Amino acid sequence: MNKIFQPIKIGKLEIKNRIAMVPMANLGLITDDGCFSKRAIDYYVERAKGGTGLIITGAVKVENEIEKLKMPSFPCITVNPVHFIQTSSELTEKVHSYGAKIFIQITLGLGRSGAPAFLDCQPVAPSAIPNYWDPSVTCRELTTEEVETMVKRFGEAAHIAKAAGFDGMEIHAVHEGYLLDQFTLAIFNRRTDKYGGDLRGRLTLPIEIVKEIKKTAGNDFPVGLRYSIKSYVKDWRQGGLPKENFKELGRDLEEGLEAAKILEEAGYDAFDADCGTYDAWYWAHPPIYLEHGCYLPFTEKLKQVVKVPVIVAGRMEVPSLAEQALNDGKLDMVGIGRGLLTDPYWPEKVMKGQEKRIRPCIACHDGCMGRMFAGRPLSCAVNPATGREKEYAITPAHNKRKVLVVGGGIAGMEAARASALRGHEVTLYEKTDKLGGHVIPGSIPDFKEEDRKLMAWYENELNELKVNVLKNKEVDEKLIQNEKPNVVFIATGSKAIKPNIEGIDSDKVVLAEDVLLDIHKAGEKIVVIGGGLVGSETALWLAQSGKNVTIVEALPDILISGETPIPHMNRIMLIDLLKFNNVNVVTNSSALKITNNGVQIINKGFRKDELQADTVVVAVGYKNENKLYEEIKNESYETYVIGDARHAHNIMSAIWDAYEVAKDI
Fold it and tell me: Taking every annotated instance into account, which residue ranges of this chain make up the domain FAD/NAD(P)-binding (predicted)?
């Protein structure tokens, strides 16, 4: 790894390396008056401490009067400038002490993309168009005077940002279909004043913004732009998949390159580039189903038409990919987003050649975007300390204790890891010959590679931390008594549920995990009972393997079961992929019985039908397995039941369960 650690300049500002923490939302890191909280300072400083060269904050609103949001959903730089400077100067001073630079990202606002839960006013937009989340609500068209006022606010914001010690600004955004981007896109902008019309007219607003900032802060104050090269809008609220042929209704590649040239000429000093809009939200927030480096084919072309530095994220946290992209001239700085949530020390570990110790992002969105859209603070599924670095840091225990972990799934491995970091003597027992539990079959599809990386990371960490791992060893009450532990973690997992229907024991019926482990158990025509995440991903994998697949789901739609909603971008992409791969989906229907020819189903209107199938795959959930806990819970040692053994759920739940207890053992 060489070029990634070479310095680079944005404008006249030198940055020590080519690693940028790209902006992510600040929910949970904000004071009531829209300033950065102590948690926010700890969060950003941890990434500077880990070696990141440039930190770009999450979006900060430029005003909160014309488009009024409920506080504290977003920080706002102009609500209380004095307090904003006070909190932000502490942030910038601490980030600078680690040799990093920091830009503040300033946003015009949300526009049609504003979720009603965040808004304290009627949604606004360039034109009277439907709100993305609730199309029955029409956005109010901003007046020319309001837009001009917003431009002036960017000048005020630049003055405040400079006083607070920020090294530059990034403008949010001609990107992702937010308010500023809506002005630049013909599909959303129907204005007849100076802010509408042809491409140059629609770019008037971002041009005026950068000129206003430069007028206030000076030409040497660098201003970057979050920029989507291609929108991938197939229709209103409908995105286009990779390799799918469709007519682009947003910004196509040709217009994206032309607009970039105009914006560079206007004064922008860097592009933080990607693709997508809310209508194609999975492009802006790539799930596991989009490949690493998904923006590189577009940024390579952008690099050919602009001279300023281009920052690129998009699942770029694979070190070899990042270095290769730099060497191939496809970008100038590597943008890391979620990869720095999972591991703030990504840069340091890459520099030291410790790639195996980088905790992987599994692209699930459960801990970051999923939590934020549930109104919860930003964090990370695989790193529970994210966003609460001080309170949730693991510190050495005062007294060394003997810890026994029963079960080598994700929860068990996390309990062992966290306990070992505390300095305890840890033994982990696993009854099979592999660690990973249900993640082993779940990680079989090609698109679940990150789950395989997570299991490998845990095994490596347990080895590094000298955890005694004993496989092929089933634990009973007597073994625990003989070990004489101080603390016992019961992480015995869960078991797949088989529905109580006629014919369920037929040879043609298999569990999802069994067919994942051995595709030869699947015929050519398959019915999957259950349209949750396991059933839908299994169906996609089978369809991609050439099978004819139908999903049967009792609810009105697939991927809506379970207590925790699947993050929106993951859900809509998986649904689109199922359609693209010709998976038939039958909703509001339940399996009545397994027949010689397939499955008899019954819908909500009590109409029966028979679906032809060689194989019936069952994916209707899991039930916790905690028999051992019930046997030993009253013994003298501390006993905790964690993960699926406590409550069958997902990877995030397993990790957080284990960490919550083990960090204080």
Answer: 402-636
Q: Sorting pLDDT into bands at 50, 70 and 90, what band is 286?
A: very high
Pick the catalytic residue: 178, 282, 429, 629?
178
Kindly report the number of other CB atoms within 10 A of residue 5's CB atom. Answer: 16
> Are the beta carbons of 84 and 157 closer than 8 angstroms?
no
Q: Is 603 inside a domain boundary? A: yes
CA distance 397 to 332: 43
529 half-sphere exposure, CB direction, 13 A CA radius:
29
Does 266 lie in the same domain as 169?
Answer: yes
pLDDT bracket for residue 562 (50, 70, 90): confident
Domain carrying residue 574: 509-620
The CATH number of the domain holding residue 640 is: 3.40.50.720
Question: What's residue 374's pLDDT?
Answer: 85
Asked whether 386 and 43 are in contact (CB, 8 A), the reply is yes
When pLDDT is cut at 50, 70 and 90, the band that residue 116 belongs to is confident
φ/ψ (deg, to 5) at 15: -115, 140
- Asked if 102 and 208 sit in the same domain, the reply is yes
HSE-CB for 571 with a 13 A CA cutoff: 15
Quick one: CA torsion of 81, 85, 91, 96, rounded to 10 degrees? 130
pLDDT reported for residue 636: 81
Residues 116 and 24 reside in one and the same domain: yes
Q: Find out whether 212 and 152 touch, Cβ atoms under 8 Å.
A: yes
Shared-domain flag, residues 416 and 557? no
Statement: residue 1 has pLDDT above 80: no
User: Which two three-digit tokens encode residue 226?
Assistant: 């979050």
Q: Is the pTM of this model over 0.85?
A: yes
Q: Is the pLDDT assigned to residue 527 strictly greater than 90?
A: yes
Q: Give the angle subtended at the CA of 438 by the CAs of 437 and 441, to the nearest 5°.
A: 115
The whole-angstrom separation of Cα 428 and Cα 403 is: 8
pLDDT, residue 71, reads 72
Residue 390 lies in a domain: no
Catalytic status, residue 178: yes
- Chain-centre distance of CA 24, in angstroms? 10
**Confidence bin at 263 (pLDDT 50/70/90):** very high
Separation between Cα atoms, residue 13 and residue 162, nearest integer Å: 14
Q: Is 248 in the same domain as 343?
A: yes
Query: Residue 608 is part of a domain; what is its CATH number?
Result: 3.50.50.60
Asked if 540 and 551 count as a contact pair (C-beta separation under 8 A), the reply is no
pLDDT at 494 over 60: yes
The pLDDT, as a whole number, for residue 633 is 84
Tell me if 380 is assigned to some domain. Answer: no
Q: For 121-177, how does the pLDDT look when each residue is reduced to its tens digit (9 = 90+)?
A: 999 999 999 999 999 999 999 999 999 999 999 999 999 999 999 999 999 989 999
pLDDT at 310: 99
Query: Any idea what DSSP says for residue 101?
Result: E
pLDDT digits (tens, 9 = 90+) for 354-365: 999 999 999 999
Tally of domains within the chain? 3
Q: Rounded CA gap, 83 and 226, in Å?
A: 26
- Residue 280: CA count within 13 A, CB half-sphere: 26
- Please name the residues in contact with 136: beta carbons below 8 A apart, sequence gap of 6 or more: 130
Same domain, 193 and 113: yes
Q: Give me 196's structure tokens.
A: 């509408």
For residues 529 and 434, what is the distance between their CA atoms, to the nearest angstrom? 28
